[in-house]
Amino acid sequence: MNWSPVYLSLKIAFYSTLITAFVGIPLGWLLARGRFIGRNILSSIVTLPMVLPPTVLGYYLLIMIGRQSFIGRWLQNTFNINLVFTWQGAVLAATIVSLPLMIQAVQSSIESVDKNLEDVARTLGKSELVIFFRITLPLAWQGIFAGTVLAFARAMGEFGATLMVAGNIPGKTQTLSIAIYDAVQGGNYQQANFLVMLISVITIISLLLLNRFTHIRRW
Amino acid sequence: MVLLKVNIQKKFDDFILEKAWEVEKGEVISLFGPSGSGKSLTIQSIAGLINPDDGFIEINRELVFHKQKNIYCPSRDRGVGYVPQNYGLFPHMKIGENIMFAMKERDKSVKKKKMVELLNLVGLENKRDRYPHQLSGGERQRIAILRALAINPKVLLLDEPFSAVDIPVRKMLRKEIKKFLTQWNIPVVLVTHDPEDVEMLATKVVHYG
C-alpha cells in the first residue's frame, strides 16, 4: 500500500486549517460584530468559494499565482517561491476552499453570544481585546471548534482546486482524493479501496469527536 | 453636590426623547414609566453604550459626552456600574470569577480577599464556586450589583432590577438593596415600571413616557 497520499493530505489539511483559523476567526468576528461600509461585499466575497465550483477557484488561483502573473512573478523574484505544482500551492487551494466554512461557523457562533455581556464587560473597564478573549471566545468556542473540524475535513477531501493548482505528481502533490481518482483510472482497485476505507474511517472518527466535544457544557 | 447631570435628546421613528435631570450624592433617582419610553436608552447612554443625538452627560463634574464639543468618552473609561435587565452575569465564569473579573487590581490574592468581603456583604460567600445558572433570580441580582460595585463606580445604573424576580421575593429584596445602597453612598439611577420600586427605593422620580 502506498501511504504517501495520506501523509500529504494530512500535512496539507493541517497547515491549511491553521491558516484558516488565523484568518477565519478575526474575519468571522468582524462580520458578526463589525459595522462598516462594505460589510455585505466582504461577506459575499468570503462566501464565494463555497458557491463556485472548485475547478473554477483553482483556475483563478492558477492565473493569480502562476509564473506569468504579477503575484507569481513577485513571489518568484522576491522570495524565490513558486507555488504552482507544489504542496504549498495545495495548502493555498485547500485554505481558500475551506475558509468559508470556518468564517460562517465563527460568525454564527459569535452572533449567538449575548451582546449584553460584552457591553457589561465594557462598563467594567475592559478593552476590546480582553472582551474578545475572556468573554466572546470562550462562549463561542464550540461553534469555532466545529468550524475548525469542518474546515479540516474539507481540506482533507479537496480535489478540484488542488488538482488545478498543484497537479497530480505522485509523492509530491498527489493528495488522498486525487490518488483515489488516479487509482480508479489506472484500474488499481486495491489501492483505491484502501484509501477510500481510510478516509471514511478518518471522517467518521472526526464527526464522532466533534459531536462529543460540542456537547460538553460546564455551565 | 450634583454628581450626575443628564441632558439628552434622541430621535425615534414615532417620538423624540428629550430629558434633563440631575442626581446628588447618595440619591436614588428613579426613571419611571412604561416600556419603550426611553428609560433603558437613557442609562445605556450614561454607560456609554449608545450615543444620544444631542446634549451632554456629566459624571463627577466631568463631561463624558457632549455632542457640540465632540466629547465621546468610551464606556470603559467612564467608571460607571451598569446592571442590565437580565443581569449580564458571565455564564462561563463562577460567581467569584465574575466579581474578580471586574477588579482592576493585578494581585490575585488581593482580588480574592476583596471578592470574599463583597460576597460576605450579601451573605453569598458560600456560593462563590457556583455558576450563575445554579443561583436563584434574587441571588443573581445581588451578584450583578456586587460586580458593578467592585469597580468602585462613580454612579450605579440599575435596569429593572426586580423584573426577573418572583413577586413575593421582591419586597424582601428591595429592603436588602435599600440597606445596601445606603452603605455605598453613590448616586443610583433605577429604571423601573413598578410604582412599588419607586415608593420603596427612590428619593427622586423622573417620569418617562
Oligomer: heterodimer
Distance between the termini of chain B: 28 Å
The poorly predicted ranges of chain B are: none
The overall pLDDT of chain A, averaged over residues, is 92
Strand tally of chain A: 0
CATH class of chain A: Mainly Alpha
CATH topology of chain B: Rossmann fold
Number of helices of chain A: 10
Q: Strand count, sense and closure of the main sheet of chain A?
A: none
Spatial strand order of the main sheet of chain B: 2-1-4-5-6
Number of domain units of chain B: 1
N-to-C SSE string of chain B, H for helix and E for strand: EEEHEEEEHHHEHEHE
Look at the helices and sheets of chain B and give the structural class.
alpha/beta
- Count of DSSP strands of chain B: 10
Layout of helices and strands, plus pairs?
The complex is a heterodimer of chains A (219) and B (209).
Chain A: H1 4-33, H2 39-51, H3 54-65, H4 70-79, H5 87-111, H6 115-123, H7 128-157, H8 160-166, H9 176-185, H10 189-213
Chain B: E1 2-11, E2 16-24, E3 28-32, H1 39-47, E4 54-59, E5 62-66, E6 71-72, E7 80-83, H2 95-102, H3 108-121, H4 137-149, E8 155-159, H5 167-184, E9 188-192, H6 195-201, E10 204-207
Parallel strand pairs in B: 3-9, 3-10, 7-8, 8-9
Antiparallel strand pairs in B: 1-2, 1-4, 4-5, 5-6
Helix pairs in contact in B: 2-4
Looking at this protein, list some descriptive labels:
heterodimer, A: 219 residues, mainly alpha, MetI-like fold, 78% helix, B: 209 residues, alpha/beta, Rossmann fold, 5-stranded antiparallel sheet, 5-stranded parallel sheet, 6 helices, globular
